[in-house]
Design a protein that fits this description.
The protein is an alpha/beta fold. It has 8 helices and 8 strands, in the order βαβαβαβαββαβαβαα. The longest helix is centred in the C-terminal third of the chain and has 13 residues, at 156-168. It binds D-xylitol-5-phosphate and zinc ion (ZN). Zinc ion is lined by residues 10, 35, 37, 68, 177, 197.
């Protein structure tokens, strides 16, 4: 990879009763961002946490907070996550008809806007939005749970997104999320995503710094 790859450990795999310590593990491991998975039990089967958790974590770290909303009607929650101190708010285009308006609401709040697509959604579904976005989050598993096996075919979307963004939005960040570990990282690196999210493998790693370096190294 040519530039510094942003590594975003996911809080989902942490022990939720040890929030502060878990964030410290990320900081000490050399993480760049904290990835926060918000699930509503409707868009995805599981329920995790809401804006209060994001606000509380915001008081414990200076790392940018990368909020991944896996919720129905994301537009109605944007304001709360802006107030909570999110740096990036990413929502699923599959959950929002008026995605462009939602992107604009996020940006008007001074927050970077991202859109995520599940494995079955093609890049063409977000083509019209790419000029307006700060980030695209390519799901490499079906969202809803940590610790799943990566679907490698989803990585092809990185190239498709870059093909469009190089013309209309060269500063767009492309992020991947799901099934990242020391085995899958080699194939992931050939696609050079800007951001790599990692949950269970990060918290399982005995030496977190060395694990993050493995993800980041060329
Ligand atoms: C899954 C979440 C991911 C999750 C990744 O729906 O969006 O961020 O934490 O976990 P791993 O890295 O274990 O696949
Ligand atoms: Zn996520």
């Amino acid at each position: 990879m040519n530039k510094h790859t942003i590594i975003a450990p996911s809080f989902l795999a942490a022990d939720f009763t040890l929030g502060k310590e878990s964030i410290k593990l990320m900081e000490e491991g050399g993480a760049d961002w904290v990835h926060l998975d918000v699930m509503d039990g409707s868009f995805v089967p599981d329920i995790t946490f809401g804006h209060k958790m994001v606000g509380d974590i915001n008081t414990k770290t200076d790392l940018p907070l990368d909020v991944h909303l896996m919720v129905e009607h994301p537009q109605s929650h944007i304001d709360n996550f802006i107030k909570a101190g999110a740096d990036y708010i990413t929502f699923h285009m599959e959950a929002e008809v008026h995605s462009h308006r939602t992107v604009e609401l996020i940006k008007q709040g001074g927050v970077k806007a991202g859109i995520s697509i599940v494995p079955s959604t093609p890049v063409s579904a977000i083509k019209e939005l790419i000029p307006y976005l700060d980030l695209v989050l390519v799901m490499t598993v079906n969202p809803g749970f940590g610790g799943q096996i990566m679907i490698p075919r989803c990585l092809n979307k990185i190239e498709e997104i870059r093909e469009i963004s190089s013309r209309v939005n060269p500063s767009l960040l492309v992020s991947i999320d799901g099934g990242v570990n020391s085995d899958t990282i080699n194939v992931i690196k050939t696609y050079a995503p800007d951001v790599i999210v990692t949950g269970s493998a990060f918290f399982k790693a005995k030496d977190k710094k060395s694990y993050i370096n493995t993800l980041r190294s060329k």
